[in-house]
Write a structure and sequence with these properties.
Helix content: over 70%
Mean pLDDT: 94
Strand content: under 5%
Radius of gyration: 15 Å
C-alpha cells in the first residue's frame, strides 16, 4: 500500500464517520452525548476536507465509500436508535464504529509501503484523535 491508498483510507474512514454521525445525531436524546457526537462529526468533516485537499495537491482523486456501505451504515444506525435513543446506546454505537475504523486503519498502517512520513504521521494523528473520541464517550456507557 502506497501513500495514495493510505490517504484514501483515512479519507474513507472519515467519510464513514460523517455518514454514521449525520444519521445518529438527530436521534440521540442525551444532550451531553449529542454534543460529543457533534464535535466528533465536525472532526470527521474537517479531516475529510483536509485529506481531500492533500490528495488533490498530489494529483489524487479521493474515492468515496460505496453507496452500499453508506446505505447499510445509515440503515443500521436508524434501526438501532429507533429501539433505544439513549445516550448510553448512542455512545456504545459510536465507540463500536470508531473502533472498527481504528482497526481497519491500523491494519493498513502496519502493512503500508508508504514512503511519505507526512502521510504516515497524518494517519497516526487521526488514530490518536479517534482514541480520544472513544475516551470522551466511555463515561456515558
Amino acid at each position: 500500500m502506497d501513500y495514495r491508498q493510505l490517504q484514501n483510507s483515512v479519507y474513507q474512514n472519515a467519510s464513514m464517520g460523517v455518514t454514521a454521525l449525520k444519521s445518529m445525531i438527530p436521534m440521540v436524546s442525551d444532550s451531553n452525548v449529542k454534543n460529543l457526537l457533534i464535535r466528533q462529526y465536525n472532526g470527521y468533516k474537517a479531516q475529510k476536507e483536509i485529506t481531500a485537499r492533500q490528495m488533490k495537491e498530489r494529483g489524487i482523486t479521493p474515492t468515496e465509500p460505496t453507496f452500499m456501505s453508506r446505505a447499510m451504515t445509515t440503515a443500521s444506525v436508524n434501526m438501532q436508535l429507533r429501539r433505544d435513543s439513549s445516550g448510553s446506546n448512542a455512545a456504545k454505537m459510536a465507540i463500536k464504529g470508531t473502533n472498527a475504523g481504528i482497526i481497519e486503519l491500523t491494519e493498513k498502517l502496519n502493512h503500508t509501503s508508504c514512503s511519505s512520513p507526512e502521510v504516515i504521521q497524518s494517519a497516526k494523528e487521526y488514530l490518536r484523535r479517534e482514541q480520544k473520541n472513544i475516551e470522551s464517550l466511555k463515561p456515558y456507557l
